[in-house]
Amino acid sequence: MIFKGNAVSVQMLEAGIAELNFDLQGESVNKFDSTTVSELGEAITALENTEGLKGVLATSGKGVFIVGADISEFVPLFELDPAATGEHLTKNNSNLNRLEDLGVPVVVAINGFALGGGLEFCLACDFRIASATAKVGLPEAKLGLIPGWGGTVRLPRLAGADVAIEWIASGKDQKAEAALKAGVVDGVVAPEALRDAALNVLQQCIDGKLDYATRRAQKKAPLQLNTIESMMAFETSKAFVAAQAGANYPAPVIAVKCMQKAAGMVRDEALEVEKEGFIKVASTDAAKALVGLFLSDQVIAKNAKGWEKKADKKIAQAAVLGAGIMGGGIAYQSALKGTPIKMKDIAQAGLDLGMSEANKLLSKQVNRGRMTPDKMGQILSAIDPTLSYESFDSVDMVVEAVVENPKVKHAVLADVEKHVSDDTIIASNTSTISITHLAEAMQRPENFCGMHFFNPVHAMPLVEVIRGEKTSDKAVARTVAYANAMGKKAIVVNDCPGFLVNRVLFPYFAGFAGLVRDGADFQKVDKVMEKWGWPMGPAYLLDVVGIDTGSHAEHVMAEGFPDRMAKSYKTAADVMFENERYGQKNGKGFYSYEKDKRGKPKKVATQEAYDLIAPVAADSKDFDNEEIIARMMIPMATEMARCLEENIVGSAAEADMALIYGIGFPPFRGGIFRWIDSIGIEKFVELSDKYKHLGKLYEATDAQREMAAAGKKYYA
Ligand code: NAD
């Protein structure tokens, strides 16, 4: 052993070959944390000082190679001044340059994920041999950043500008075979053959059969492009990359600009350009928000894993009651992810519809070549459509997804309880009705909780798992384990009408109702909120959710929170409802819907909707964007603050992720609490005071005022 640290070690194998091994102690994966960076420097010094060294084999002692930089170290990094950020980059860049400048060949065996800094390390080596199961990529853009350890320098020089632009701008992971095709790795072998294959390549370099020196020179020289080629590669892609990323995500374009600026430079100069680019993106709000979001995502993943560990059993057989929009979606998702499911309805027509929806979704995948017809058959046969409770006694978990009516739900829940075992967990997919209230009909309320999916089930990641007053830990644990098995992001919340997401969504709709009442143009409100980052504005969202569904839920919410959610006036949505304009589902709502060329509903605004709204709205008034945003967002943000204060949700991180995964809150804002932090709670309270004449939904809470006075943040 010529070097031994807590993350990196170097030992001599035979005949002058050293193995540089990454194995971060106390962690399940390797990452480039500050320990690894420092130790890599020391390990390279040891290599530089080893007499008779002929070659280096780089390996990992984990199931992955290196998953990237330690993101949790980024937050303090962003607090540093630009010079300190630059120093942080320089430290590892100097490691990688020294590795690339060693007098002997270096070959890396990539056994699993090599992402971000992990791939940048591999790019500094002379040859890259990957296991067929490895995945590589530069995902920094997804965090609002650009590669900072030579990714924008070495990747274009090695694989060409087009590959580098595509990989860096998209941030996508690539399979080993794709990386081989793109010229990013030099060989792909079966996992068990990896070490020998990499050693073999290294030996060929040592024996002079493989020319590693030319490879190395290519990575250190300017890009081999003439002016026209360079313009074609960079200028044309810049517009495309900008359009794909959108104005709120500046990192991909900055990455392309860095590569373009550094194209004519040698490695060390090009690295300086990359450093400047990194410092620039690291100071953007988008980077801070996206890094924060990554960390919050880890919080919810950890919580969900923790619950799963507590689950008494894996769900071998599930059932869903109701084969409608939601029940059909739940059955599809469960079967797709490997849990067989019974789908019960009271009407054969319902069952047929549920099966045909699943069929449609699966056929799409088969047509796109993503699934074999055999697999499709297997998945469909894992859904058992039924009109009876036969063999429900062997079901581990039932999800109730019948109509949103407390009386019907009470009857169905009491009924199903008679047909399942004492041990079966029953969960309701209700969108709004209190779980504690629904549990009143049950003999075993401890085995009951909420499991709130979002529509469409296959596409929306969030599942709220709701704990009623009598819900046991066992029920929560098994339900979270089922959500995990279905590939969903589970967040456990406490019970109240609307739970977390719908409880804060209706105040947002109330903000919209007030604006239209006061003369705002609903199309303008939609445009402003879409520009703010929402996937769709409130009028369009109401149309997609269904005006009838929304109206029904609004009543439940008004009953639950009469002091602030009961309305004192007729809203534009009420008018739509009265006129049976239910939105997308029947072709007319705030907008009218026509089919586009691909048969998808396309929205068009018509005078008809404006004429209907006119009697309940003031004369048309042009609100400025700032006012629209404030009037829409304050009620949602304040209600979310109440949810946190009342312990409906356990942390700001969970609340933020729930809105991002449940209703597409703009990710580049990092979540609703990060948004409040970004403008400052003091400013938020001031803004609330400005609009408090609009009603209680606009009143900041006492705790928010205390936070403002104490200069506190939601994320300390
Ligand atoms: P839906 O009307 O599409 O489907 C309801 C189904 O339940 C119908 O097929 C009906 O035949 C069946 N049904 C009625 N009584 C039954 C009984 N006694 N036993 C078995 N089946 C019965 O409704 P949906 O939109 O799928 O909503 C179902 C539940 O999911 C509701 O509680 C709703 O609030 C909730 N939810 C809906 C959405 C959404 O966007 N649609 C989103 C989240 C949650």
UniProtKB/TrEMBL annotation:
Name listed for the protein in its UniProt record: enoyl-CoA hydratase
Domain 3-hydroxyacyl-CoA dehydrogenase C-terminal stretches: 498-593
One BP annotation, GO: fatty acid beta-oxidation
Pfam families per the UniProt record, alphabetical: 3HCDH (PF00725), 3HCDH_N (PF02737), ECH_1 (PF00378)
Catalytic activity, as annotated: a (3S)-3-hydroxyacyl-CoA + NAD(+) = a 3-oxoacyl-CoA + NADH + H(+)
Pathway recorded for this protein: Lipid metabolism; fatty acid beta-oxidation
Keywords: Fatty acid metabolism, Isomerase, Lipid degradation, Lipid metabolism, Lyase, Multifunctional enzyme, NAD, Oxidoreductase
Domain 3-hydroxyacyl-CoA dehydrogenase NAD binding: 318-496
Highest classification ranks of the organism: Bacteria, Pseudomonadati, Pseudomonadota, Gammaproteobacteria, Cellvibrionales
InterPro entries named among the record's database cross-references: 3-OHacyl-CoA_DH_CS, 3-OHacyl-CoA_DH_NAD-bd, 3HC_DH_C, 6-PGluconate_DH-like_C_sf, ClpP/crotonase-like_dom_sf, Enoyl-CoA_hydra/iso, FA_oxidation_alpha_subunit, FadB
GO annotation, cellular component aspect: fatty acid beta-oxidation multienzyme complex
Gene behind this protein: fadB
EC number(s) from the headed UniProt entry: 4.2.1.17
Similarity comment: family membership: In the central section; belongs to the 3-hydroxyacyl-CoA dehydrogenase family.
Top enzyme category: lyase
One function term, GO molecular function aspect: delta(3)-delta(2)-enoyl-CoA isomerase activity
